[in-house]
Every structure is written in structure tokens, then in C-alpha cells.
Design a protein that fits this description.
The protein is of the alpha+beta class. The strands form three sheets. Strands 6, 7, 8, 9, 10, 11, 12, 13, 16, 17, 18, 19 and 20 form a 13-stranded mixed sheet that branches. It has a five-stranded antiparallel sheet with strand order 4-3-2-1-5. Strands 14-15 form a two-stranded antiparallel ribbon. Helix 2 (114-130) packs across helix 16 (533-544) and helix 12 (439-460) packs antiparallel against helix 13 (473-494). The longest helix is centred in the C-terminal third of the chain and has 24 residues, at 595-618.
Length: 680
């Protein structure tokens, strides 16, 4: 596999921008045309001859995420800060700590007026999507693929492939940004070193020492890129079977790491990996925000059949055998989801697909968290039969190829003579979901991973046949915190807050303080889902290419859509809040609970409550925070309290500049036609 470059120099000239390796011998550079944004690979000698003049400026970077075209032209996204967070085997893994969005377009290419405002909004959205500290990459390892998939790719490829060529398309998160670089590299294999696949999710590497044996415990979560979004604006499956919040979590026990040590020669060079997945229920469904704490649930079972079939078929292609574990409630609000999932699962005829429904909240109610063991016992058969991936890295036997050594994977064949190849393959995967695929899913996945880890360490000889994780407090504490951190990372990416129920994940029991923290996070999720996540959805759509900026397409997507009634209601909210704050700091009669101050405060609270009722009834489309870039099919139409009523003078004060320009004197005459009637 060709290693990606670790340091880059980006030079800006009048007509072009060049990308070259800052260190190391590379025969080719990339050249970006500043007018068209076209990227091409050229030889180093041609670059030196063509660009003998000094560049206008030079930027150094650790990596290139890719390019994106906005209204003004192309921008390049650079990795300007990185942090080593661990390793898998001998490959170092980095987290992106800082990015920079740099305009590539020529300086004479400008946009004006509202296009300039839209351009600034696009850049701000892109920068906000990149600001999260959850992008990871490696220069010499395909981090988008599990260890088992990497081994399969090595057997299928002849060697000399660039990282992007074998990357897992599902988890190649910067694939859209990297498309121009990939196109340039397709005409020149050597230019592939400039393409750096990244994952979005979670990575942690912890060193563990048990009875003199050291190994690295690695946990990786790769979030899918094909149906990305926020909690209420990205649900279910799309027409291609891609589901929201899809993620693959891989647990690795690594004896290959440089700091691993063991007196047992059979463990030297061994890696063991276990994979689980999560994803939204693969139906056509949605939760429509409406300012209520519980959004409106919409489920269409009949329209979901093709989507469901495509998703499960893809899962079977990826993992061979699948067990779907549904954790939603069997009663009340979530019941339609469970019924629809069960029906389509029963109608899907495949010996390699299995379905089970465990009502998590009912079974574990009143803090009876030990009852998770009921589900674990039910899944034990599958977990045992599916097994885990195991590979021993070593020296090939004389006259034996790597493919031959791995052709018939057995424990004995891999251990004998230090050959290289898998001795175990994971034969299937457990797919877990709840409504959000966050809190309940996190608890179950962590317990399944512990069961497999115990088995792995026993079979490796690190544990005795009677040892358990609980008798090693340091190991147990590390696992608790690692899985809780993973839960928080996935939850922050999808819901904007940390995960719920992490007190159980961290301590092994439910606590009252944990319940209070869950309440705080639940309230924050409500506020974000109704008033902030629309813009966050726009940022994600721009980053992954769900929305592509079109120049010269008329009115921009950020035009003001508020009606006069909506603006009046919003203004009333501001007045109410001002009055309530005033009553708090300057109470009447000098006392908060004086009769006059209570009446004053209660009156404004009543007005505020009436405004919220009015908003919920007719104005959620304009006053809640909906995505602007990709149309949401569940967004209600903008309603007018009285569509026949027009107030041009107020419109001129409160409307957008475009609408103000459209209001001419003839509009006023039309709104207020002349009359012969005299005022009384």
C-alpha cells in the first residue's frame, strides 16, 4: 500500500495553486487552476520549469481534506493541526485538531450583494462542520476499513494501491471533498499520495497490562457518510437503503503495537477485532418538530419495503450474517416503529437475517439494569457463533505467498512457522438500534463488547478460564470510561449533546446524579432540535455533498421566509423576555414576591405562553430552525394568520431588502384602494 504524504506545501501563483510534498521525494505535484478549479497531476520537473517565479504566498499543511466549489469558486480544505492519539499495529493514528478553509479562486473573481452574504454563510457553515474534534486519519493505514476488510483487500489487490483506492466508501467521510483530487490521481497513480481518507467518529488507544502481558486496547467508531444529519432532520432509510446515524464500532486487542510485550511467542504479532454496527430503523419514518417535547411521529410501512430490503441486503453483503436487535418500546409512542420493523423483518426471507425485539425501558425500568443480561443471554448464541477476527503478523514461510497462507484460516496454520494470515474470521454482525441509536444502543453494545473481550483474553491465555473483567479494577475502569466517551462522541455528532445513561456505562450502575444529568441533556436536546439543528444540518449537507452550491441559480437558499405575523410574534417574544429580565433585576416594590411584581411577571409569562401556542399552531415552519439547503419533506407550509391582510408600511420596515424593493407605490394603492367614504 502506498503511504500518503505527511507534509504538504501549497503555493499560490497568479493563475494556479500547486500542492507538493514538503518532505520526501515525490515525482508529481498537483496543480489547481484558479479560474476553473480543475485539478491535474504534473511531473516535478514540469512544475519547476513552469513556476520559476516566486509564489504570492505559501501555506504548510499536514493533510488535504479536499476542495469544494462555492459561489466564488473553489476553496481548499487543509489540515493545519493534528494530534497523535494512538496506533493500530505500527501505524500512527491522528486526530484533526485544526483546519483551514482557503480560497483558491482568483482574486479578481468576486461576488456582490446578497451573493456575497450567501458566500460568507457557506464558508461559516463549512467551518462549523469542520470545527468538531472527531476527524481521524492515518498516513499508512486504511482507517476507513476494519482489520478484517483490510486483510480481504490485501488478498484481492496486487499491491501498490493508494489508500483511497481501497478505502471503504461507506466510511470515507471526506470523499466528496476529495473527489477533485481522486479524479486527478486516476490519471496518475503516484498522485494518489495526496488523497488522505478520513473517518468521522471516535478513536481511542489505551495500553493495558495484565500479569506481565501488555497490549493495546483500541476502540474505533466509523460514522457512515451517505445519510448524515442531525437527530430530527435525518431519520430512517433513503431510497438507496442508506440509514441515518449508521456507524461501525470495532474493538481491537493489539499485540502488534510497539509498546506491546509478552513472554508468550504465540501472542507476538497478534491482532483480534470484533465489529458491531448501529443504524436508524430502516423504514420511511420521521419525527417532525413542532415545539412539543415529543415530535410528531410519521411511519409509512408500505413505502418502506424497498428501502428495508436494500439496507438489509447491503448489510448481508458487508457482514455475511446479521442480527437486528430492536430496543424501542413495545407500547405507546414507539409501538408503531417496533411493529413496522418486526413486520418487514418477518417478510424478509433470508436464512442469514435474524430479528429480535427487547423492550429496554420496560425490562430495565426502576433502575433494574442487571436485566440487560436477559438480552445478552439471548444473543450469546449468535455472539459465540459469529466469533471475532484474529490475525497473526509474521514472516511468510519459505516459498509461500501471503494469499496462500491465508487461504485456509485456522488457528494452527497461522501460528505455525510465524506465517501471516487470519486464523479466525468474524462470520456475522449484531446490528443494534433504538429510536436515536444512541443511549440504549450504547449500553447494549458495550456489554456485548465486554463479553467478546473476555472470550478473546481467555482464548489468548491472558485470562484464565475463570477470570473475568470485574476482577481487574483498572481494566474495568478503563473500559467503562472508553465506552462512555464513545457514547458521548456519537451522541454529540447526532444530537448535539452527550449521551444519556452514561453513568451506567461508566460505573456499572444507575445513579440519581446520572438521572439528573440525563434530564439536563434531554432538555438541551429539545432546545437544539427545535431551534438550532436546522443550521447544523445545513453544515453537514454542505460538507458531505448532499447539497452542492450552484452559481447563477437566482435567489439564494438563505432568503428571509418569515411572514409579517411571524415577525410580530418573534418581536413579542423579545419584549416578553426583556420584561421578565427587568422584573428579575428591578422588582416592583423592591421585592421579587411582592404582589405587584408577581402580577407583573405572571402577566408577561401569560403573554409568552400565548405566543408559544400561536407559534405551535401556525408558525412552526418559519420560526423553528429548519434546514435551508436541502428541502425537508416534512416541513409544513408557511401559514398566514390572514392572507388577505397586507400592511405595506409595516412590510417596508420589517421585510427583507428584496421584498422592500418590490413594494412600489402601485402596491400600496392596490392594498388601500381609493374610496369616497368619509371618516365619521
Amino acid at each position: 500500500m502506498v503511504t500518503a504524504q505527511q507534509s504538504y506545501k501549497i503555493s499560490f501563483y497568479q493563475a494556479t495553486v500547486t500542492i507538493e510534498a514538503a518532505r520526501g521525494a515525490v515525482d508529481e505535484h498537483l496543480v489547481i487552476d484558479r479560474s476553473s478549479g480543475a485539478v491535474r497531476a504534473v511531473s516535478t520537473s514540469d512544475t519547476v520549469n513552469a513556476f520559476s517565479a516566486a509564489p504570492q504566498r505559501t501555506i504548510s499543511a499536514h493533510g488535504i481534506m479536499g476542495l469544494i466549489n462555492l459561489q466564488r469558486g473553489p476553496y481548499i480544505v487543509l489540515v493545519t493541526g493534528r494530534e497523535a492519539v494512538g496506533s493500530v499495529g505500527t501505524s500512527t493514528v491522528y486526530r484533526v485538531s485544526e483546519t483551514k478553509v482557503v480560497k483558491v479562486a482568483a482574486d479578481n473573481r468576486v461576488v456582490q450583494g446578497f451573493d456575497a452574504v450567501d458566500e460568507a454563510t457557506y464558508v461559516r457553515l463549512l467551518e462549523s462542520a469542520l470545527a468538531v474534534k472527531s476527524f481521524y486519519f492515518s498516513y499508512d493505514m486504511d482507517l476507513t476499513s476494519s482489520l478484517e476488510r483490510q486483510q480481504q483487500q490485501q488478498q484481492q489487490q496486487s499491491g501498490g494501491q493508494s489508500l483511497y483506492a481501497t478505502a471503504n466508501d461507506e466510511f470515507f467521510f471526506n470523499k466528496y471533498l476529495a473527489e477533485p483530487l481522486i479524479a486527478a490521481a486516476s490519471s496518475s497513480q503516484k498522485a494518489g499520495v495526496f488523497v488522505l481518507p478520513m473517518i468521522h467518529g471516535f478513536f481511542v488507544c489505551k495500553q493495558v497490562m495484565i500479569r506481565g502481558t501488555a497490549f493495546n486496547y483500541v476502540l474505533i467508531t466509523r460514522r457512515g457518510r451517505k445519510r448524515q444529519g442531525t437527530r430530527y432532520f435525518s431519520r430512517g432509510a433513503d431510497e438507496d437503503g442508506n440509514v441515518s446515524n449508521f456507524a461501525e464500532t470495532e474493538q481491537i486487542v493489539d499485540f502488534v503495537a510497539l509498546n506491546a510485550s509478552t513472554s508468550d511467542p504465540n501472542l507476538a504479532g497478534v491482532q483480534m477485532a470484533y465489529v458491531q454496527v448501529r443504524g436508524s430503523i430502516p423504514l420511511l419514518w420521521a419525527q417532525v418538530i413542532n415545539m412539543r417535547y415529543v415530535p410528531t411521529l410519521k411511519v409509512d410501512t408500505d413505502a418502506s419495503r424497498e428501502r428495508f430490503s436494500k439496507h438489509i441486503t447491503r448489510m448481508l453483503d458487508m457482514y455475511n450474517e446479521v442480527v437486528s436487535v430492536n430496543l424501542v418500546n413495545k407500547v405507546k409512542y414507539e409501538k408503531p416503529m417496533g411493529d413496522a420493523f418486526a413486520k418487514l423483518s418477518s417478510d424478509f426471507k433470508s436464512p442469514n437475517y435474524h430479528y429480535t425485539h427487547f423492550d429496554f425501558h420496560k425490562e430495565c425500568s426502576k433502575m433494574r439494569w442487571e436485566r440487560i443480561s436477559i438480552l445478552l443471554d439471548e444473543l450469546a448464541e449468535y455472539n459465540t457463533r459469529f466469533g471475532y477476527f484474529k490475525m497473526k503478523h509474521g514472516v511468510k514461510a519459505p516459498g509461500q505467498t501471503a494469499a496462500a497462507s491465508a487461504a485456509a484460516p485456522t488457528e494452527e496454520s497461522a501460528a505455525a512457522n510465524g506465517t501471516t494470515g487470519p486464523s479466525k474470521l468474524q462470520e456475522g454482525v449484531i446490528r443494534t438500534n433504538c429510536m436515536d441509536c444512541l443511549d440504549r444502543t450504547n449500553v447494549v453494545q458495550s456489554e456485548l463488547a465486554r463479553a467478546i473481550l473476555t472470550r478473546q483474553l481467555r482464548e489468548a491465555g491472558v485470562f484464565s478460564d475463570t477470570d473475568a473483567i470485574a476482577i481487574f479494577p483498572a481494566l474495568q475502569s478503563m473500559l467503562n470510561n472508553v465506552w462512555a466517551d464513545n457514547a458521548d462522541a456519537v451522541s454529540c455528532a447526532y444530537s448535539g449533546t452527550g449521551a444519556l445513561k452514561t453513568d451506567f456505562t461508566r460505573t456499572g450502575k444507575r445513579t440519581k446524579m446520572g438521572a439528573l444529568q440525563d434530564g439536563r441533556n434531554s432538555v438541551e436536546r429539545y432546545v437544539r432540535g427545535n431551534f438550532f439543528d436546522g443550521e447544523r444540518q445545513d453544515a453537514i449537507d454542505l460538507l458531505v455533498g448532499a447539497y452542492r452550491v450552484q452559481t447563477g441559480s437566482g435567489a439564494g437558499p438563505f432568503a428571509d421566509e418569515q411572514t409579517l405575523e411571524g415577525k410580530a410574534l418573534l418581536g413579542t417574544v423579545y419584549v416578553c423576555l426583556f420584561m421578565l429580565v427587568y422584573a428579575f433585576f428591578y422588582p416592583r416594590d423592591g421585592r421579587w414576591f411582592s404582589l405587584s411584581n408577581v402580577v407583573f411577571t405572571s402577566s408577561w409569562l401569560a403573554v409568552l405562553a400565548l405566543v408559544f401556542v400561536a407559534v405551535k399552531g401556525s408558525h412552526t415552519a418559519e420560526l423553528l430552525n429548519w434546514p435551508r439547503l436541502v428541502a425537508n419533506p416534512n416541513r409544513p407550509a408557511v401559514m398566514h394568520a390572514n392572507s388577505a391582510l397586507t400592511l405595506p408600511l409595516l412590510d417596508r420596515l420589517l421585510s427583507s431588502p428584496e421584498k422592500k424593493a418590490a413594494l412600489r407605490s402601485d402596491d400600496m394603492k392596490k392594498a388601500w384602494p381609493p374610496t369616497d367614504k368619509k371618516l365619521a
